[in-house]
């Protein structure tokens, strides 16, 4: 993912939106400012604890180059990185995520969560693994990129919007294209609508509000990315066992490349996750993925206000 910016808006009457919580990075010089936050000293706009053991600049960096140029309200965007150390808290998922630090009512009534996101060809996210991007803890609304765990095939080049873990909309996750997104969340009525545009275009209501189990404690909005390890171990084992009916050698041709070695007689690859770590399925061998996000992404927020009726 490239850089994006995020914000929560509320719109109680015609063209009268209020910024409830400002997730832009306008008050920060560098991402090292995030280190000011701790559980004991909860300052700034973001809680910063979901990341690997490296220094902050291994995972989060700020620059005017990392925002949608059409986003005139943000001075800089954020580049979020998953590298070979980006495992949080002993988990098998790679995670770099920012959480709002606010007491504002970003989890009540109707609010818009507004951001832009982009990826580049350099350090592109893997198309072979599921990435959950800009999501709530319960995943009632989120973006996803890459192969969806449990689906057929081994890769997926789409960026998609999911509500209640069901794909509602998708587009090619093309390098260099800024995707402008707003989730229109009605926490009271239990719906979420999807506003979308690219580049400098105005947001358009692209998917009418759908029914969801909308809930948030106000501190579980995840601005960033979570990458699942391939769950292929079980899936491929089952497939290979089925293929035993036609003989072991026939089954080999169905194996995912990750499984070309280390399969035991049952087709179980017990070393799968550890070997999958540090690999880059795109092929540059760095094992590093970058995502770009800007909060209050383009188009200009004023354009969005005018649509907020
Ligand atoms: C973080 O702390 C440093 C050192 O006290 C300070 O200079 C900086 O302004 C702080 N950052 C923010 C965003 O408040």
From TrEMBL:
It comes from the Eukaryota. Residues 1-16 form the signal peptide. Keywords: Signal. Pfam families: GH131_N. Residues 250-262, 272-283 have a biased composition (Basic and acidic residues). PANTHER family: GH131_N DOMAIN-CONTAINING PROTEIN (PTHR34612), GLYCOSIDE HYDROLASE 131 CATALYTIC N-TERMINAL DOMAIN-CONTAINING PROTEIN (PTHR34612:SF6). This is Uu.00g125100.m01.CDS01. It comes from Anthostomella pinea.
